[in-house]
Every structure is written in structure tokens, then in C-alpha cells.
Amino acid sequence: MNIGQASKASGVSAKMIRYYEQTGLIPAADRKPSGYRDYSDTDAYMLRFIRRARDLGFSIAEISDLLGLWRDETRQSAEVKRMAQVHIEGLEKKIKGLQDMARTLTVLVNACHGDDRPHCPILQSLETDAKDEDRTIKPRRGAVARLVQ
Questions:
Q1: What is d(CA 40, CA 141) in angstroms, rounded to the nearest whole number?
Q2: Which residues are bridge partners to 31 per DSSP?
Q3: pLDDT of residue 86
Q4: What residue numbers bound the domain in which 52 lies?
Q5: What are the residues whose beta carbons fall under 8 Å from the beta carbon of 29, sequence distance 6 or more?
Q6: Fewest C-beta atoms under 10 Å: which of 25, 42, 49, 70?
Q7: First to last CA, the chain
Q8: What is the DSSP letter of 37?
Q9: Cα dihedral angle (8, 14, 19, 21), rounded to 10 degrees?
């Protein structure tokens, strides 16, 4: 099958298939006499494996390791399980980080009046590295004071 057919069969774009070949994640496809790539059903199956691993958030390096284990008939499932557990720990750490960001933004949004005044605790927070700073509205640092006439 050509690259378009392999793409359709696997759910991996032709561009990504070429990238995976360039990086060595998958072996280079055989070539037809015309020079076009010629993929086998096994190649499409391997590309589906890669797509599913990417959908689960595995990195290219991790997928390379998983492919190595998949091809190794003498592997022990304990190694695959260990890799998956390490990946879960990384995902949970990312989730916690995203939840922390959402909580911080929620506090900032709740502190912002969202009116026509220029003072904004969201922008004030972005100006500083302080994590527990006062979120009350105050004049922006470095702002030029307006003269009241």
C-alpha cells in the first residue's frame, strides 16, 4: 500500500509516517520500482500501535522502547508494566500541575472586577513571581499617576 493508504489504515498522517521513518522509530518502507513507498499490513499495524501509544501520551522515546519490547518475544511483562506505571506517575504530576494552575487562575479571576478600570489583579500577578501576594486591586507598579483636574 502507498503512504496515503497506510495513513488511512493506521490513522497516522503521511507527514508523521515520514517523520517516524526519518527518526528511525519505524524502518524505512520498501520502495516500488517507481520510487514510491510500499507499506505492508505489518507496517500499518505498527503505525496503529504508535498512534495508540501517542494517544496515551507516551513520548517518541518511550514509544521506541515500547516497540522494542513489543518486538522482543522474550520480554517480561513486568518491564512493560513498569513503563506504564512510570508514565501514569508523570501524567498524575501533570494533572496536579494543571489543577494548581486552574486554582490560581480562579483566585485571580474572582479578584478581578472586570470593569472599565485599568487595575487588574490578573495582570498584577503576571508582573511578579510572588505566589501568595495580596490579590486586592492596587495601582500598577510603574504606572504614571493620572492627574485629577
A1: 64
A2: 37
A3: 96
A4: 3-75
A5: 3, 6, 21, 37, 38, 39, 43
A6: 42
A7: 78
A8: E
A9: 70
Q: How much is the pTM?
A: 0.72
Whether residue 23 is found in the same domain as residue 70: yes
pLDDT at 59: 94
Give Cβ neighbours of residue 39 (< 8 Å, ≥ 6 apart).
Answer: 1, 2, 3, 5, 6, 29, 30
Three-state secondary structure call for residue 45: helix
Query: Degrees (nearest 5) of the Cα angle 96, 56, 88?
Result: 45
Whether residue 13 lies inside any domain: the answer is: yes
The overall average pLDDT reported for the chain is 88
Q: What DSSP element (H or E) covers 38?
A: strand 37-38
Q: Is residue 144 part of a domain?
A: no
Nearest alpha carbon to residue 54 among 29, 95, 82, 26: 26
141 DSSP assignment: T
Structurally, how many domains does the chain consist of?
Answer: 2
Residue 88 lies in a domain: no
Q: How many residues does the chain have?
A: 149
Domain with 18 in it: what CATH number? Answer: 1.10.1660.10
pLDDT given at position 80: 94
In a domain, 127, yes or no: yes
Task: Give bridge partners of residue 38 from the DSSP assignment.
Answer: 30
